[in-house]
Amino acid sequence: MLLQQLANGVFAGSIYALFAIGFTLVFGVLRHLNLAHPAVFTAGAFVGIEVAARTAIPVWILFPVVALFGALAGVLVERIAFRPLRGRDDEHFAGLISSVALGGVVIALLQARYGTEPQSFSADYFPNQLFEFAGVRVTLTQLVTLGLALVLMLGLAWLVSATSLGRSMRAVAENPTAAKVLGVNVGRVTAGTYALSSALGTVAGALLALNLGQAGRDLGASIELVGFAVIILGGLGSLWGAMAAGVVLGIAEALTIHLFDSTWKSMVAFALLFAVLVLRPRGLFGQVKVREV
Amino acid sequence: MRLKSTTGAALAVAALLATGACVSQDTTDASSDSALSGSGTGADCTIDETVKIGAVFSLTEAAAFAGAYQQEGLALGFEEVNAAGGITYEVIQEDDKTTVDGSVAAFEKLIDRDKVSAIVGPTLSNMAFTTYTDAQSAGVPALGVSTTAEGIPEIGDYIFRASLPEEVALAASIPAAKEALGLAKVAVLYDSADEFTASAFNTIKDVLTDEGIEIVAEETFETTDTDFSAQLTSVLDAEPDAVILSALPGATVPLVKQARELGIEAPIVGGNAFNSPVLVGALEDAAEGLIVGGAWSAAADTTGNAEFIANYTEKFGRAPDQFAAQAYTAAFLIDQAVRADCDANREAIKDNLGQILEFDSILGPISIDEGGEVTQEPVVQIIRDGAFTLL
């Protein structure tokens, strides 16, 4: 039973982690807080449901399609909410506000297209199966979620550390001006970062919708707060931190429900957050800040 | 949060009291309008002037899933009442956008500008708590068709409801399920962040104690939760004969789906939130075996029910749900109250709505007492082969 609850926590946590790494990637590279991320996450869920209903394509083609949509959405978010503000003194704060506004626009567009009622995956689109390993019950969607989350997180880690785009991203993160002088196309790196971030966000949204069977307009809002807690807990801007913290929070929530009551769930999650902030202000995996002088 | 909403409500009430004073001055001429009282009695009653009825429902935003059905049900009801002749009703429809201030504005418009004889609605109880004080101070009878919270009819003598409280629905479905399925031990799952589902939980516990059923697992969740696997694991482990669920419609679909996926085969018993064809559509096979307590059933053999379902489906292109059925019934209840004295003035409707005894409706025999509270037999249904069947 305890083992089962740990497994539940890991599955819930992998969605938190996927949501959080998309968000933290943009912050780590560009120091932008993109608060349109939860709305893009919700859009991913709706797009996934609509594409599945219209084309009946199998699930392993569905997610790349959703990711492609997400990448386009990410480029648009950067063009609309952040690029016009570039170079202003209040660039970061104004970007934060304009991304909140853009998030509102996205949700309104979703309502215009899909109405106010939640949309559902058809039950026979991805028939669920139950497996049992050593007394732990897992469903096929949970396995797909965990597998896809692992692949995407490891893929992202590889991309950042070993490819030329990743090198450029790290250069921009270190010092955008120096990167530009050294010939890095900062505009392209910025767009690429947003595309990656939003692709991860939309896939996470579609995965959550597949797990729940349905998605409403408040899907992003329901995960937003936990997602942000994961980012802080892991260390703002740290990919490995976000992954680990997502799973830690997922397990903490599952155990709280198991041992106490769901009412305590948020309290335990945020107590954990405050404890980390007091004992280790840079988060579990965050780096000591030396740049802000 | 709690403090904020109370202060907001207090301010709203204060504002309403201020407007209430002039509203009630206006109504003296409206309530003594002799053109609204006709000749004859009962079925022979004839009133020359068109009787204006206000309707306030949540047609957009969060509660639109209910409001749209209510608007259609009420329209169909008055269409049939008008066809009977003698009295012509005109429904003035307002949308409260699922907000308290939208609801207040709609009530004020209907009371002051349109000078309606009575108001049907609003959709949600938390709006009714504010708007009904407005209707009460203005002396306009208001009839709720989905306001199930405790304390609504107690707001005043102008406030009535024809909507079965959640507690009554659940209190009926549990003994029925016990009899049909022989329950000895159950798991209870409820939304602890919502006032109505949390208060329904107390009723559930009392009913279970009375019936001698043991609670082997007691789990909570919150309205915005999406993942219920931790709670459902505990439920699965307790091996209950049935799961009793008190949830809002939003959480019901993912919760039932996840329960079935995790291998919980036990029947799931619920209240009003289950009573919608939309739920069956969204859950598909996972809806099988759900036991639902409610105010109305498509399968019930009540007076005019088959015609209501046929006419509604033909007119609006979809099957009616409980919200539509209760709003439809409201049209007949108001007509009944008007015909009693052949008088469509606010005062007469108020006096007669509280005298309705065993009126034969599609909800079965329905009564409203002077205090404004409804009495009707709840129906208990089980979903079999994708359709609601009486248990």
TrEMBL record, chain A:
Keywords for this protein: Amino-acid transport, Cell inner membrane, Cell membrane, Membrane, Transmembrane, Transmembrane helix, Transport
Subcellular location: Cell membrane
Record's protein name: Branched-chain amino acid ABC transporter permease
Species of origin: Glycomyces endophyticus
Topology relative to the membrane: Multi-pass membrane protein
Annotated InterPro entries: ABC_transp_permease, BCAA_transport_permease
Family in the record: Belongs to the binding-protein-dependent transport system permease family. LivHM subfamily.
Annotated TM spans: 6-28, 59-81, 93-114, 134-160, 225-251, 263-279
Primary localization: membrane
From TrEMBL, chain B:
Signal sequence, start to end: 1-24
Domain annotation Leucine-binding protein: ranges: 50-376
UniProt KW keywords: Signal
InterPro entries: BCAA_transport (IPR051010), Leu-bd (IPR028081), Peripla_BP_I (IPR028082)
Matching Gene3D superfamilies: 3.40.50.2300
Entry superkingdom: Bacteria
The keyword Signal is annotated on this UniProt entry: yes
Pfam family, one: Peripla_BP_6
Family to which the UniProt record says this protein belongs: Belongs to the leucine-binding protein family.
UniProt-recorded name of the protein: ABC transporter substrate-binding protein
